[in-house]
Amino acid sequence: MNSGRSGADSRTRLAALFGHPVGHSLSPVFQNAAFRQAGLNAVYLAFDVGPERLPAALAAVRGLDLLGANLTIPHKERAGVCLDELSRLAERTGSVNTVVNRDGRLRGETTDGSGFLRALEETAGVNPAGRRVLLLGTGGAGRALAFALAEAGAELWLVNRTAGRAERLAGELARFHPAGRINVGAFETRAALLERAGIEVLVNATSVGLKPGDPPLFAAGELPGAGLTVCDLIYHRETDLLKAAAARGLKRVDGLGMLVHQGAISFELWTGRPAPLAAMFEALSPGRVKKT
């Protein structure tokens, strides 16, 4: 296991990732690089925690005085009831991806949306204000992105396999952003929606593509030939969606930039120090990490 320093001692602080699964995660790679660069006596470890063990895992953050934790699938929408307080945005989105331990009080934050917006601007040069955005998936990460995109002034189309979840999210967004343009589309007609709604940014926030052999979200040729930026939150492999976008000559944004940027915000919340972004990205440079 990598550590933030050359070796741990009795004063080493711990930050953790809780998820199921976590074997593919790159968070320990760049977070430990950040601790080393910052000269902090801390380590970051990933723990495979099933849903039934999440309350105990979060209690351990308090009981063992961890710096905090990141949460990934399937915990982002389940963690709130186990925490002492939530940030305003985490409460609104119903999604928590960062837990901060302040003297035994656990505060839930969501950094997914901010991390995504930073990556979209940095990688593709896209500001979502006034753009028509199709968001596939309204789970924990999708909810956080939806609120961030609505706040940024995007015109949103929400699509989810379970239509009711997209409709509920649209209603919640409308309450907080009454002047926003929030629409709901059917998952089965997502390809037709690209052209019909004039979509400019396509975001996959589903788990489709996480595993090799997952059915493609779009058939060959269903993506337009120009004018679309394609984003996929999956980062540990090039998904079929991103391959299709490359074949059509479209701008692409994979999940790596969002991962690092949201992780950088988590680092700053835990430590009170600016995140060493260059070191975090360098740790994930080709040849230094293995992708499946």
From TrEMBL:
UniProt: NADP(+) binding residues: 160-165, 233, 255
Catalytic activity: shikimate + NADP(+) = 3-dehydroshikimate + NADPH + H(+)
An example Gene Ontology biological process: aromatic amino acid family biosynthetic process
EC number: 1.1.1.25
Pathway assigned in UniProt: Metabolic intermediate biosynthesis; chorismate biosynthesis; chorismate from D-erythrose 4-phosphate and phosphoenolpyruvate: step 4/7
UniProt domain SDH C-terminal: residue ranges: 255-283
Residues binding shikimate, per UniProt: 25-27, 72, 97, 112, 235, 262
Active site positions: 76
Top enzyme category: oxidoreductase
Pfam family, one: Shikimate_dh_N
UniProt cross-references to CDD domains, sorted A to Z: NAD_bind_Shikimate_DH (cd01065)
GO molecular function, one term: shikimate 3-dehydrogenase (NADP+) activity
Protein family (similarity comment): Belongs to the shikimate dehydrogenase family.
Task performed by this protein: Involved in the biosynthesis of the chorismate, which leads to the biosynthesis of aromatic amino acids. Catalyzes the reversible NADPH linked reduction of 3-dehydroshikimate (DHSA) to yield shikimate (SA).
Subunit text: Homodimer.
PANTHER family: BIFUNCTIONAL 3-DEHYDROQUINATE DEHYDRATASE_SHIKIMATE DEHYDROGENASE, CHLOROPLASTIC, SHIKIMATE DEHYDROGENASE
Protein name stated in the entry: Shikimate dehydrogenase (NADP(+))
